[in-house]
Amino acid sequence: MIPGGAEWIIIGGVVLVLFGASAIPRFARSIGRAKKEFEKGQHDGARQAEQREGEEVPSADDPEERPTA
Asked: Can you tell me the distance from the alpha carbon of 33 to that of 45, in angstroms, rounded to the nearest whole number?
């Protein structure tokens, strides 16, 4: 059940009353920073996966293929 237009207006009014007008820009800014950090993590993870793609990973079932320390 997704809220419609009127419900969003009511939710926004309640948030404004509870937190005040000055808290809303700070909240939006923190959401933007979190989104940017998440996207950076996705990009870094994809880059690391591409780098590992060429490396051969030894099988856990075959002891001869395991690297010795």
From this structure: 18
Rounded to whole angstroms, how far apart are CA atoms 45 and 39?
10
pTM, rounded to two decimals: 0.52
Element (H, E) at 34: helix 23-53
Task: Give the DSSP letter string of 40-66.
Answer: HHHHHHHHHHHHHHTSPPPPSS-GGGS
pLDDT digits (tens, 9 = 90+) for 9-66: 999 899 889 988 888 889 889 999 999 999 999 999 999 988 887 776 555 565 555 5
